[in-house]
From TrEMBL:
<feature type="binding site">
    <location>
        <position position="71"/>
    </location>
    <ligand>
        <name>substrate</name>
    </ligand>
</feature>
<feature type="binding site">
    <location>
        <position position="272"/>
    </location>
    <ligand>
        <name>FMN</name>
    </ligand>
</feature>
<feature type="binding site">
    <location>
        <position position="182"/>
    </location>
    <ligand>
        <name>substrate</name>
    </ligand>
</feature>
<comment type="function">
    <text>Catalyzes the conversion of dihydroorotate to orotate with quinone as electron acceptor.</text>
</comment>
<feature type="binding site">
    <location>
        <position position="91"/>
    </location>
    <ligand>
        <name>FMN</name>
    </ligand>
</feature>
<feature type="binding site">
    <location>
        <position position="301"/>
    </location>
    <ligand>
        <name>FMN</name>
    </ligand>
</feature>
<feature type="binding site">
    <location>
        <begin position="67"/>
        <end position="71"/>
    </location>
    <ligand>
        <name>FMN</name>
    </ligand>
</feature>
<feature type="binding site">
    <location>
        <begin position="116"/>
        <end position="120"/>
    </location>
    <ligand>
        <name>substrate</name>
    </ligand>
</feature>
<feature type="domain" description="Dihydroorotate dehydrogenase catalytic">
    <location>
        <begin position="50"/>
        <end position="341"/>
    </location>
</feature>
<dbReference type="InterPro" id="IPR050074">
    <property type="entry name" value="DHO_dehydrogenase"/>
</dbReference>
<keyword id="KW-0288">FMN</keyword>
<feature type="binding site">
    <location>
        <begin position="322"/>
        <end position="323"/>
    </location>
    <ligand>
        <name>FMN</name>
    </ligand>
</feature>
<comment type="pathway">
    <text>Pyrimidine metabolism; UMP biosynthesis via de novo pathway; orotate from (S)-dihydroorotate (quinone route): step 1/1.</text>
</comment>
<dbReference type="InterPro" id="IPR005719">
    <property type="entry name" value="Dihydroorotate_DH_2"/>
</dbReference>
<feature type="binding site">
    <location>
        <position position="177"/>
    </location>
    <ligand>
        <name>FMN</name>
    </ligand>
</feature>
<keyword id="KW-1003">Cell membrane</keyword>
<feature type="binding site">
    <location>
        <position position="144"/>
    </location>
    <ligand>
        <name>FMN</name>
    </ligand>
</feature>
Length: 343
């Protein structure tokens, strides 16, 4: 029903408006007392074999919702009923910011992909923290943190520390996002010197807390092998929990969508099926280079049980979906979980 009825309706709308429409409908529906139980019956699948412990946290299943879908922590309780094992909110910044000019989210239907240049649009970390304070479900939540667009890189650490402090009481793990292609200069923080300094400072702050949270680093799929070697070295030296591989790509190679349409869309990060192989390659390389010394959360192009199994075989301990969730619908997490149990 989703692909034949709901998806065509949504795809007749502007992509960003469609996202807002879905969010509004879900909030409306979940005000009706029996809807939660119906959604759980339809879309949630639980099995003891799915439970996995990563970085000291026990996830009821390994399929999570990637950052970007629920930027402002509005949908955490709802996503729990759709069968997700965890939800990553954000990316959040210290101050609210509108993001880049619209339109900034585009569908590449022949490729089952998206291009976005959202630019960390969010209502600020304090809004997200306030919402998480009153969440009702027990689903594990990650806090994906970034810097404001107008914060120079030399002061970026202040933004990450601010977000860490505001979210500490309300999230189960943190993600340091330095890999979005849509904030000018942000990816420069992936370079060895700035990255080591940033992660060392975050870890020092984390270690001073009564119950330190696992900290993950989200990386781009466009890094060279030398840069990935540096990433592995820095993760081991700073003793952060692990890596999320990967963010969106700036590559436009091997797309089915017409080149003229791609050129008209312009800049932005590409997600979905076209990034699947690159993401898997990064996961496999990091796993082998590190000899499995730390966990990897695999994200990029997962839209099926087979895709999920490929990521796990490459070395991922957990999975995240976003674009596949949009194209495949609300049953994706449960279908993957069922498939993993059968394997």
């Amino acid at each position: 029903m989703y692909k034949h009825l709901v998806l065509p309706l949504l795809f007749n709308m502007n992509a960003e408006k469609a996202h807002g429409f879905v969010t509004g409908i879900l909030h409306f529906l979940f005000r009706i007392p029996f809807i939660k139980s119906i959604f759980k019956r339809l879309y949630s699948f639980e099995h003891p074999a799915l439970a996995v412990t990563v970085a000291g946290l026990t996830f009821k299943n390994p399929v999570g919702l990637a950052a970007g879908f629920d930027k402002n922590a509005e949908l955490v309780d709802i996503m729990e009923t759709l069968g997700f094992g965890f939800v990553e909110i954000g990316t959040v910044t210290p101050r609210p910011q509108p993001g880049n000019e619209k339109p900034r989210l585009f569908r590449l239907k022949p490729d089952k992909a998206l291009i976005n240049r959202m630019g960390f649009n969010n209502r600020g970390v304090e809004v997200a923290a306030a919402r998480l304070k009153y969440r009702q479900s027990s689903i594990l939540v990650g806090g994906n943190i970034g810097k404001n667009k107008d914060t120079p890189n030399e002061k970026a650490l202040d933004d990450y520390i601010y977000c860490f402090n505001k979210l500490y009481d309300f999230v189960d793990y943190f993600v340091v996002n330095v890999s979005s292609p849509n904030t000018p200069g942000l990816r420069e923080l992936q370079e060895k010197g700035p990255l080591k300094q940033l992660l060392t400072a975050v870890q020092q702050l984390n270690a001073a807390q009564p119950a330190p949270r696992p900290v993950f680093l989200k990386i781009a799929p466009d890094l060279t092998m030398a840069q990935l070697d540096d990433i592995v070295e820095i993760v081991l030296e700073t003793k952060i929990a692990g890596v999320i591989a990967t963010n969106t790509t700036i590559s436009r190679s091997n797309l089915k969508t017409a080149a003229s349409a791609i050129e008209e869309i312009g800049a932005g990060g590409l997600s979905g099926a076209p990034v699947e192989q690159a993401s898997t390659d990064v996961i496999r390389y990091i796993r082998e280079k590190s000899s499995g010394a730390f966990p990897i959360i695999g994200v990029g192009g997962i839209s099926s049980v087979a895709g999920a199994k490929t990521k796990l075989a490459a070395g991922a301990s957990l999975l995240q979906v976003y674009t596949g969730f949009i194209y495949e619908g609300p049953g994706l997490a449960s279908r993957i979980c069922k498939g993993l149990v059968k394997s």
